[in-house]
Amino acid sequence: MARIDLSGRAALVTGGAQGLGEGMAHALADAGARVVVADIKEELGAKVAESLGESHGFVRLDVTDDASWEAGVATAIEHLGGLDIVVNNAGVEITSLLVDLDPEQAMRMLEVNVLGTALGLKHAFRAMRPGGPAGDGGSVVNIASVAATIAFPSISMYSASKSAVDRLTRVAAMESGKLGYGVRVNCLYPGLVANEMGAGLAGDVARLGLFASPEEAVGAVIDLTPSGRLASTEDIADAVVFLASDRAAFINGVGLPVDGGMGM
């Protein structure tokens, strides 16, 4: 099968300065899209954008701030000459048992993971709907998590926030369709990835006494995964490219598990 071609498409990726977001930015660029990396980490984000090449760019964007979204999307459209793809990837995970729940930490996850995604949908729709500054429709890919589909101890609020991303996705797809925006909205459920966030979770659950060691925690996740391994950044990034492409033209309002079967 020929590789997916996103030539001529313009994409914005939140949380693109590192981790999964950086991998998604590279995958979109490798498929031919022009990409703006959006993040609050300016130095890291600018380096990622520079590594993508001349036609790409960086914008500072705090996903929890409405005005930051408005300015960031406007800058991205000006730099790219349009906007066809928005990836709402920015997210935080703070591990905690329910009996030790910290309201401030819980609110932080809700603000970044849920409000940040909702504002991303708002400004993607405003930009890409008819009459908007991009105005040709497009695709939004929200990043949820396998945590939205399983009951794993110590990530209750993270799981709740990612379940909310799933619901936002489906309502947004329906609104876009009913109002004629021409924007498809889907989400991914990534499995655990061996990156900084994944390593942090493994260490945290061991520290809480749920597993004897981080290695045992990772082994437990692998045991729950029919594919017998953790997810890779490339697994998740390739799925983003697919959902953003015309090959997914009739896929709308769904959550795609990229978890090796863990959440089935």
Notes on the protein architecture:
The chain is an alpha/beta fold. It folds into 2 domains: 10-191 and 231-255, NAD(P)-binding Rossmann-like Domain (Rossmann fold, 3-Layer(aba) Sandwich); 193-230, no CATH class. It contains 8 helices and 7 strands; from the N terminus they run E-H-E-H-E-H-E-H-E-H-E-H-H-H-E. It has helices spanning 19-30, 42-52, 66-80, 103-128, 156-178, 196-207, 214-223, 233-244; strands spanning 10-14, 34-39, 57-60, 85-88, 138-143, 183-190, 255-258. It has a 7-stranded parallel β-sheet with strand order 3-2-1-4-5-6-7, sandwiched between helices. The mean pLDDT is 95.
Q: Assess the beta-strand content as a share of residues.
A: 5-15%
> Count of helical segments?
8
**CATH fold annotation of the largest domain:** Rossmann fold
What is the H level of CATH, i.e. the homologous superfamily of the largest domain?
Answer: NAD(P)-binding Rossmann-like Domain
Number of strands: 7
Order of helices and strands: EHEHEHEHEHEHHHE
Question: Helical residue percent?
Answer: 40-55%
Which class of the largest domain in CATH terms? Alpha Beta
Query: Can you tell me the residue ranges where pLDDT is under 50 for at least 5 consecutive residues?
Result: none
Number of domains: 2
For the biggest sheet, the summary is: 7 strands, parallel
Taken from the alpha-carbon principal axes, the silhouette is globular
Radius of gyration over all CA atoms, rounded: 18 Å
If strands are numbered along the chain, what order do they take across the biggest sheet? 3-2-1-4-5-6-7
Q: Architecture of the largest domain, CATH level 2? A: 3-Layer(aba) Sandwich
Distance N terminus to C terminus?
Answer: 27 Å
Q: For the residues shown, what is the average pLDDT?
A: 95
Category from helices, strands and their pairing: alpha/beta
